[in-house]
Design brief:
Length: about 130
């Protein structure tokens, strides 16, 4: 299994395609859950469908990072070391603000806040790459 993942992760188009498939499945699930009256069991199944495409994307990304040289691995580690505390800060801030002012669930629910996490990671990558150049 690892050799298959390693071979696939060497092709950027495969990793990008897995990310696109995951995003499409996620937004399709969101659309189905927002716009259709489904039974509860089916709603749970639809809500869980993005897990498999994301797991495949994650395995491909990790296999790709394992094949990188030491500098590239260090850069990704530092990007995560930046993104994780920023995520904690965002969640802490939103939790405290929610005690003081009502936050609109149409803007600040889990459906919307998770999208900051990849942004924090890419900010961490940009910051770290700039440091090493």
């Amino acid at each position: 299994m690892n050799t298959i993942l390693e071979k696939l992760s060497q092709k950027p188009i495969v990793v990008i395609a897995s990310a696109v498939i995951w995003a499409l499945v996620y937004f399709l699930a969101r659309w189905l859950l927002d716009n259709h009256q489904l039974q509860d069991g089916l709603r749970v199944a639809v809500a869980l469908t993005p897990i498999l495409p994301f797991a495949i994307f994650l395995m491909l990304m990790l296999a790709g990072i394992r094949q990188m040289d030491e500098l590239h691995r260090k850069v990704h580690l530092e990007a995560l070391a930046i993104a994780f505390p920023l995520t904690m800060l965002l969640l802490m801030l939103l939790g405290l603000l929610e005690l003081v002012i009502p936050l609109s669930p149409e803007d600040w629910s889990y459906r919307h806040v998770w999208q900051f996490l990849p942004l924090f990671y890419f900010l961490g990558l940009a910051f770290t790459w700039r440091r090493y150049q």
